[in-house]
Each structure stands twice: as C-alpha cells, then as structure tokens.
Amino acid sequence: MHELAITQSMLDLVLKQAEEAEAEKVGKINLVLGEMTGVVGRCVQFYFDFLSKGTPAEGAVLNFKVIPTTAKCQNCHKEFELGEFDWTCPHCQSNNIEITGGKELFVESIEVD
Amino acid sequence: MEIKVVKNILGANDQIAGKNRQLFDSNQVFVVNVMASPGAGKTSVIMETIKRLKGKTRVGVVEGDISSSLDAEAIGKEDVPVVQINTGGECHLDASMTASALGDVPLNDIDLLLIENVGNLVCPAEFRIGEDIRILIASTPEGDDKPFKYPLMFHEADVVLINKIDLLPYLKFDVNAFTQAIRGINQKVKIFPVSCTTGEGIEEWVSWLLGRMGKK
Questions:
Q1: Which residue, of A9, A96, B10, B156, has the fewest CB within 10 Å?
Q2: Rounded to a whole number, what is the distance in Å from the CA of B4 to chain A's nearest CA?
C-alpha cells in the first residue's frame, strides 16, 4: 500500500528532473529498489500508469533493478546475502552482522526526448 | 537522452521530516514515533507511559489512524493534549501529514511528544516524520517470527517493546529466539519485555526513556 505514496514521490521527482532538462517526454525510468523495502514493482507500475496520465511521463517504461539484502559479518568481515530465516554469517556462524544493502529506494536515471 | 538522477524517492518526505525535527528541537520537545501492527498495544503502551510520567515530564500525543478518534478519546482521559490525524486511507503517517497536525500541538507546553503511527509493520518504516527515536511494539500473540517477515521495521527500530508478556504461558513464543532474531539485524536496539495489563517492565522502559530524553 505504501507504493501509492512512493510512486507519487517518484513521479514528482521524475517530472521535476524532466522539466529542468526541458524534456517533452519521459521514455524510461530506471529505478533501484532494495529488497528489504518491500516495495513491489508490480504495484508501482499499477499506480504509475494511473498517476502519470496526462503528464510527460505517461507511457514511460519502468525499469526495476532489485538489490538483494546483504550484510557484512562484523566477526570475519565477509559480505553475504541474507537468508530468509537465517541471519547468521554463513562463513563463521556469527550473528554479529551489519546490513549493507537492500534499503535502496531511488531513481537512478531517466531517458527523455 | 539519458539523465543521471540518483535521488532518493522519499527525499521530499525526508526534507519535510527535517523541518519537523527543527521545530521539535527549537521547542525542546523529544519525539517518539510509535509503530506496531494493529492490536499490538500502541495505545495501551502510550497510556501506561503517560501514567508513569505524571509529574515527571509534560507529555503530548498525536494519534494517527486511518479513521475514527477512538484512541484520541481514550488518551484524552489521561488529561494530556492529544491531536488526531485521520489519514483517510493512507497506511502510514508521513512528514507532511505530521506537519499539518503540529499547529494544534502545544509544543511550548510539552517535553515529550508520542506520535502513534498507523497500525502496520511495512509502510511506516519508510517514512521519517521528524522523530528522535522510533519504537516498535511487538506483541507475543503475533508470533516470534515477525523480525524475519518485516526486517526493515525491526532494522529501523531504536527500541522494541515486547508487549503482552503476561500471555507467555499460553503461547508458543520464544522470547530468546525473538530477541536474537532482532539483534541479528539491529545491534543497537534496546529491547524491553512489558505487559500493559500487569505493568511488568513498564517502569524499566519509562526510566530508559527519561534517561534518553535527558541526552537531547
């Protein structure tokens, strides 16, 4: 459900960037979504199609780059992808870990005409 | 033509949250964002916290709900200023909704503002509202697997209150496993097992809160 607010913010940001570049049409939006944010691309697309109607971004292709949740072990300093139900280091079994990726939620670039 | 953007989608929200924070700071008000799933005991924790803070610090409350003012009415009985925000369908409070309620909060006359977020373990984690700390109330009937299902929320929390511990004899809830799972992705978190029914653990939470407020 947070996708509605997130999509509106994303669209506002994209339209501002497009306006600054004096673009008439946004053809593609490259988004980076961390897995941990729980943002569902399908929902973003649904809201985007609705919210972008009548704006220069109408019909733009949304491209999602999904970043897995990763962590760095504070004991052996190795990086690894976080399992679904196991949050210990697969190398040394320490549970002293720090999240290093998966919280991303940004617009990487847009393609405009 | 490709334009590099690399901008946080929620940057606009974070900016407004920053303004809220400045307003809170200039009034020397400590702000707690209270998050939980529906029915975990947000309102009960707020009421127990208010009761124990009487005479120690001046409290105000902002109640965020999709609809109704039931919680605000309950808290109003504790004789503290309370402002209701109805989000009208939005599943979380954001910084601008919070800002719009602040005009009705007597910031000059309070030291602590407890903001009850909409009951939800997903969306509130994304939206800063200008708070000093974020607390998450997780109740034992919800099950001890919740950190694995809602990792962002547990990662973002400064404090987790494990509520309804008086029900532990009737539930398969492993407090140790739950605590370990949270610490797995959040080393700095403070965890307090509490019961709003028996009052167990509330004193520890409240005295920690007072200590934390003193550091601001």
A1: A96
A2: 4
